[in-house]
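In keeping with the milestone schedule agreed at the kick-off meeting, the structural modelling team has produced records for the first pair of proteins. Each record is given below as a sequence line and a structure-token line. The laboratory manager (R.T.) confirmed that both were archived under the project's standard naming scheme.
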Amino acid sequence: MRDDRLGKIMTWLQAWIRWYFVKKTFKKLQDQRVALLVIQRNLRKFLTLRNWLWWKLYSKVKPLLNVARVEDELKALEEKLKKETEAKEKEEKLRKDLEVQNVKLLQEKNDLYLQLEAERSSAGDVEERLMKVVSQKNDLESQLSDLQDRLSHEEDAHASLNSAKKKLENEISNQKKEIGDLELALQKAEQDKQSKDSQIRNLNDEISHQDELINKLNKEKKNLQEISQKTAEDLQATEDKVNHLNKVKSKLEQTLDELEDSLEREKKARADIEKNKRKIEGDLKLAQEAVADLEKNKKELETQLQRKEKELQGLASKLEDEQALVAKLQKQIKELQQRIEELEEELESERQARAKAEKQRADLSREIEELSERLEEAGGATSSQIELNKRREAEMSKLRRDLEEANLNHEQAMSAMRKKHNDAVAELSEQVDQLNKAKQRLEKEKQQIKAEFDDMKGSVDHLAKDKANTEKQNKQLEMQLGEVTSKLDEANRNLSDFDSAKKKLAVENSELQRQLEDAESQVNQLTKLKSSLQTQLEEAKRTADEESRERASVMSKLRNFEHDLDNARESLEEETEAKADLQRQLSKANAEIQQWRAKFESEGLARLEELEEAKKKLGVKLQEADEHIEQLNSKCGSLEKTKQRLQGEIEDMSIEVERANALAATLEKKQKTFDKVVAEWKQKTDDLAAELDASQKECRNYSTEVFKLRAAYEESQEQYEGVKRENKNLQDEIKDLLDQLGEGGRSVHELEKSRKRLEMEKEELQAALEEAEAALEQEENKVLRAQLELSQVRQEIDRRLQEKEEEFENTRKNHQRALDSMQASLEAESRQKAEALRMKKKLESDINELEIALDHSNKANAEAQKNIKKYQQNLKELQSAYEDEQRARDEAREQYAMAERRCNALQGELEESRQLLEQADRGRRQAEGELAELHDQANELSANNASLSMAKRKLEGEMQALQADLDEMLNEAKQSEEKAKKAMVDAARLADELRAEQEHAQQQEKARKAMEQQIKDLQVRLEEAEQAALKGGKKTIQKLEQKLRELEQEFESEQRRHGDASKNLRKAERRIKELQFQADEDRKNYERMQDLIDKLQQKIKTYKRQIEEAEEIAALNLAKYRKVQQELEDAEERADMSENALAKLRARNRSSASATRGVSPGNPAPKPRKARVEDE
């Protein structure tokens, strides 16, 4: 009664505690439910905002606001250009008119010359006419000077237009820089993609790690099952021993009181054993449920992984398409840049040709003026003029040859520049290929190191598993040894007891044989009953297992239904929103109807037909809206019914939510550690990307500087050659002028004598002049044609430039839009990732499912009713199956209670039948057999122990070897650190040298510029000296020539120094790059070694933790073993006490028997009976 009462009190207490904890968890779940609703509402609002068209338009328009301003500025500049070109065209028309007038004047001049030929006889008239012609010529020259002034103004305007064009080119270069920045952003996006790929790899690694944990748990489960089987076998053995001892006791005991005490004690022991058994079974069930939950989580993670992989594949396809578009755009940009460069080069060549032509024209005009002056001064010197004409013709032919040579040189220079540009592009492409090859090599090395690391990890795990198994086997063998020694001791004791009992019980054997036969018959009956009860027990266990499985299936179905309920709720909310929208549309339609009515009343019957058509359309729309509203109302009613049904089922899911929370907490801890690792790798990748970008920028800057220096060098060389040629020409002209002056001084006295001869030759000179004027007219026509062609070329270039700029702007806009959309998608992904990290406790799977449901909600409206009907039918079927299962469970419980009652009754009968002696003999035989088996087991265990000790020594040796390897790795890491420090010192030293070389190069550049300025000043002085050379200045020319030669020599030496300095600079840059690359490789090797060391230390910590856990498990098993041993010792003490009581009873029986024998035959037996009663 006391035990029953205590059991009831404990059950009440447990029920109250359970109720308290369930209430607490229920309140917590309610709070979580409210929080979930709030989060879902916020997510829904965010998703609606994300798909809101106005928001998308705002996000797309915002970055394009500045682009519009740039386009306005470009339009304003284009308008300015148009105005300037119109002004230029007007001035060109004026210039053409003036040139026509000039041609007319020249024709009049020719007519005058013809009149001069007709009036040869009258010299005075000719001289007067010549004076008139000279005056007309002066007028024409004044007109020419005016025209030249106008030309200079037009050239200034052209220069201003060129400056505007340069500004536009600068703006184009800025836009190119912006394109470069966009390319950098694309590279960053690719780097983000690579980081996401690394995150996916890390997630795969974590999934594999979780699979390993599940395998470990399965192994631990198997070990627990083996331990439970061993404990059950041990329990059965102890039960057999207890039964045997109880049988011995029942044979030897005769009093009912002592037998009842022993029965009660055995019942208590059995109840304890059954409690232990139930506890073990409960632990097993919990472990099975945990394994099932882990498998479910694994499946859910696999589904999530598949979804993520699909999304990643879609993103990868989008990225590839965008990369293809970017590659096409880059190709187009490069082609346009090449075309622009070619056009610019052609423009420069045309400008140079025009400048040369203008110079030649100025030279020719100056020569004409000199000829006219000489004509006026000499009045008709024939021989010198003929020679001068011949020289002029030779000079004209030389100039034409020089022009042709200059064109050829220009074409050669253009081809050389193109070759150099192609070579530079090839060098850059080779550098890019080398970088790609280096990147591939590094990736291969990384994969090899990763594979080696995985192999090492597998081997270490295998060693750890082997070590744990050996330690477990060692502990089990030690426990078995202890059990065997205790059993040996017990067997020895039992043997001695059995020998004494055998001697004592030999007398009672004859009396107990009859009782033995009766007991055997009873035992047979009881064994039959026991077998039948065991079969019933096994059937009850099977039914209980089936019930638990069905319960798990029902719980999974309940989860699915809860998920369906959430989807239905969301669809209901969406339907309500759609209903509200439809109502708004209805109100809008009514307002429009009222407006139309008002218009109809105001405007009359003019638009009656249009209004009727609109009315019909509105009526159709109203009918469609009413039908849609009715459908939505029916859906809402069905959804509310399902909501009421499913609310009752949600409460049953609260317990499973708690388990899911526990699992989520463990997974969250793992996720935090994983996030830390991912953040570290992200930092490393960002640093590497920044270094790579910096190196690429430096390469681009250096290449542009090299191109600029080459162009400047070539321009300076061309200018220098031009200056040389002009100096030579000027020297030749000075010599010719000096000769002419000498000849003029000599022929002054002979002029009067040769006047007649000159008049004869004057006609020839006039003919030569006419030919020269005709040649001049041809040259002017050529110049006009060249100018026209130049204007046409410019117009074509401007038109092509405008077209290319428009194409470029269109491509840039498209590219900008694509980039904006990509940036928006990237920002959305980053936000979603941040929100997913915050909501990771419970909502990762729910959010994915909600997003899918939101995406497919418009499609699933029609199918919702069918699904609801199916779910209702399934619910009914499940409810009926659940009721059947409950009935079967109640029946099984009733059968189990009946079986327990029968078992208790049978136990009483069994305990009464254990009073037999033969079972003692059987027990003795069994003990002898067990003793022999225990001896064999002891020998085997000693051999196993020796082998295990050898394995332990081997493992210790391997551990020492691993420790030595670790020390060697640390030493190598230190050496690599020292190397990296040395490389950094060398890099700093080379950087200082590079700075010094750069400063030296800058100084040389400044000196070069100063020399160029000096050269320009000297050229100005040269021109002044040439003007003064007519009066005579050979000495100054020679001095200037000497200075020029010295300056040329200094300039050549400076160029050589500059070339040497640039070569040294390139060598230093190559050395710095090599050292930087070596330092990066050393740093990467050091980081790899550090990572390996950290991972090995983590493995050692995990191994230590596993060893500690195994030791704790061994300590628990030892405690259990000691507890069982103590219970056995208590049972043995009870057996000894019962044997002592039996011995006392036998002694009393013997004394009573001797007393009866000593009494006389006349006395009956009342006295001894009385004495026996007194003794009792």
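The second protein of the pair:
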Amino acid sequence: MHIDENDESVRLKALRELDIMDTPPDPHLDAVVKTAALVCDVPISLITLLDEERQWFKANAGLSGTSQTTREVAFCHHTIAQNNLLEVNDALKDARFMNNPLVTGDPGIRFYAGAQLTLNDGSTVGSLCVIDRQPRTLTEKQKNILNHLAEITAQALQSNKTARQLSESEALFRALRAASPLGIFVTDSKGHCTYTNARWHSIFGIDEASAMGDGWTSTLHPDDKRRIASDWPRTGFLEQSLDCEIRIQRADGSLVYARLLTQPTLNAAGEVTGHVGSVDDITKQRVQEQALRESELLLKHTGALADVGGWAYEIATGELTWSEQSCRIHGVPVNYEPSLNDAIGFYTEEAQPVIRDTVQNAIDNGVGWDIELSMIRADGELIWVQSVGNVEYDNGSPVRLFGALQNVTHKVNQRHAIEAAHDRMALATESGSIGIWEWDIVQDELSWTPLMYELYGLRPSDTPLTYDTWRNSVHPDDLSAAETNLKKAIATGVDFDDQFRIVRPDGEVRHLRATARLARNASGAALRLVGVNWDVTPMRSLTSELAEQHELLHVTLRSIRDAVITTDASGNIAWLNPTAEEMTGWSVEDATSCHINQAFHILNSNTREIAPYPIEACLQQGHSVALGSNAVLLSRDGNEFGIEASAAPIRNEQGDILGAVLVFRDVTEQRRLSSEMTYRATHDSLTDLSNRAEFEYQVSIALKEAEATGTEHAVLFVDLDQFKLVNDACGHSVGDLLLQQVAKLLRACTREGDIVARLGGDEFGVLLKYCAIQPAESIAQELCNQMDVFRFAHEKRRFRIGTSIGLVPLDNRWHDVSDIMQAADIACYAAKDAGRNRVHIWYDTDKNISTRTADMKWATRLELALDNDRFELCAQLLSDLSNNSTALHLEVLLRMRADNGALVSPAMFLPAAERFHMATRIDRWVLEHGIEKLLALPDPSRISTMYINLSGQSIGDIVFHRDAIELLKNAGPIACERICVEITETAVITNMADATIFIDQLHDLGIKVALDDFGAGASSFSYLKSLNVDTLKIDGQFIESMLHDPLNAAAVRCFIDVANVQGLRTVAEYVSSTEVLQHVKEMGIDFAQGFLLHKPQPIDQVLACRVNQPEMMANC
């Protein structure tokens, strides 16, 4: 590089005048280069001075082992030749330096930035530079700081020279005061100038004539003139010299700073006769001092700007000094005076051993440091600092440590962020299969990452890639458009963004997306394109599929009967399907952009108040929202629809809400049916009263309230006394009419808010809310009275019904609904047992209640017996009085095995079974096991007749009839021909219609029917006409006493005559003596039964015996 010889001569002269080459290291300048390295984040920083043959390093940070290079290889040679900072981003790519041995060899310079060291006279003596072994670029802020540091360095170099000159001038001036002053002047005692020399003239800028007398004072600054006028007489009177600084205002407008020194002259008498003085032009000194102050201020501000502080540690005394910025970095006052341990204590726990060992190593071995550590400020904030330290020697011994401290928290965080970003970028490109490429437009060189080769189906090779490599891979149909877009990007600078197909070497076609950004040089010429490629083939396929699905969805939504409305994020309608148009009364055209609340107007069907809008809640809460079950949609044309609706947010891939979708459907008919079903589920269809389940639910609510608040309620259990009489006499349909009239009467006798329910059959329940026992008893009694006077009329017949009522107080003594219902049932049956048509109140100590409770205990035992198969069958033989039969006639009897192993008679448990409606289950068990025993016999023909008893409940239970007929059908003719079902006269009378049908069904299967306990009823003969039975079993009370009671004997004869007329067999029960046996034979009775003839035994023993075996008389 060419430098003008005249300029170079001036520059070298200025360098020599600095007298600084090959001088010892200056700690202040060392601090400057370390600061520059810290600020620019580089490992090397130098202050280089360039003379005729070499560049010499006045200060060196990071380039150990050398202090100079030849001028030919010096980067500084280029720096001083231009007017601004020289920045070389990559020396290997810069033609000026790519072959420089400092680049190709040690230290391997790749990056260089140098700022000129320009003196006040404009001479450039060297540079302040920063160097890195990696390519990089300085920020504008770093460049500014580097320039400022170069200015500081230049001023410091001149200040050193000025300080030396000032010292020499002052020494010379002191010597010349008596002999050769620089500017000499003489005055009389009054200060009138009488002599000046040439130097004086040059300083004051006036000639000798102008200086004479008071003329010299005319050049003084007014303030200085007044001060001289004041001080001059005093110096003469006191015989003192005058030494001061003055300002001289020259005619050319320049201002000269001068030092004025006078010495009084004395005559022989010792009187002051005048003054001899000298004047020294110190203008340059003052300018340099000001420059130094400005330089120090600039350094201070630069330190604050770069957050760099200085420090010094005296090894001998242990005194540690921090600069103001160092104090600020630590978060302490600027006058803070720390000890070494205090300073180390600011570092984090893991950093303290590092800095302590580093400092000790510097003291012991003279090794400086440059490390990055974490620190905790006085206010608790965690920061990162760059700590730089060096050692100062005196006579070969370390005496002082000094260095700099920079807050690099931001830089560290940035580095960590960059590292994280780099990792994320690498992960993103790899996981996203994104290939990166760069095309050097000037050189036509194309660079690909490995993923680019994968995308194009090519293998990496040493063959250089060019534009044609890419061009030849693009599908011919897409090439023209792709090239046009690429050229447009190069011409306009707009980012390249395109999609095109490529054809891989194997013929596979893939869709790629490409984006790139153009880089230009300083003149605006296009240099290179840097971009990425990624495979969008799946996305294109997905887009096509989505388009098809969108069309399919659109058609589907238009076809379904559910109404669909979509909105934007503000709730404005975007679209409606036809069903939504039909239900809201709004067309798509009218509704689009309207707010959803305007077209979708909903009310609460119960309160008729505006219902909450699901779309608003959905958009606010960000999740699906369902509409309440009572919502009604008001159509634009006034129609109402019961609806079910739900709204859900529509989100993009990032989770941002784009809008919402509302789906609703017409459930008007469904809701009507549901309401009807709910009503039916809780009400009795015949009477429109609550059913048992609803009644027990209402009782449970009342019970919880009683437990929580102590309120009192009452429960009535109402049973009709003569319902079956009406049912049997007039038929079920008339019985239903009676139940409806009773329901109306119950409602009329109770209060509003009370719950009246039909519990089943002819049983009713009443829940008297908030009713104490006394008013509850009054209401129950009034109900009983009304039923007493009530007459049910049918076809000129009038029936007195009557009712039995159990009353239970519902208070906090109860804990379970079943207990209350059971207590009410017990109380009701206690009323029946006490004579019917009355009210019985439940009390813990009531004897009737105790009896009923005992029955309940039997009911529990019966449940356990049924569950655990603890019933057993016994049998009692019947004697054929005609002696014509060789087969067995027997009656099946039931026993229950107690916990102690004893057999319990049915007389103990059958009443409880009847009361608690368990008799039917027991009958079913007996029938099943009796048939099983019969069919298990090797020779069933040995059995002529097996009598099996059925209870009155089973006779009146149609379900039992169905199950029994099915069981007997499955048993077959062998069993049916031998079974005779016994039913009591009382059971038949109570269930006449059902009993008649059941008897006919039994006969159809070949099963015989016996009427048990005949004669016990008052109307036996009248009912016998209506019944198709096969056998009469005469009640034992007539048989036992007929030898002593002629009336009973006559009744028995009458029964026999009636049986003979109707062709029925007869059985005499309770035959207990030989006399009675003989008498019944004589009367013509067919069979006899009693303990005289056979005591009951287990049925297996009876079935195994032969007729007339003596052992059959054994006790069971």
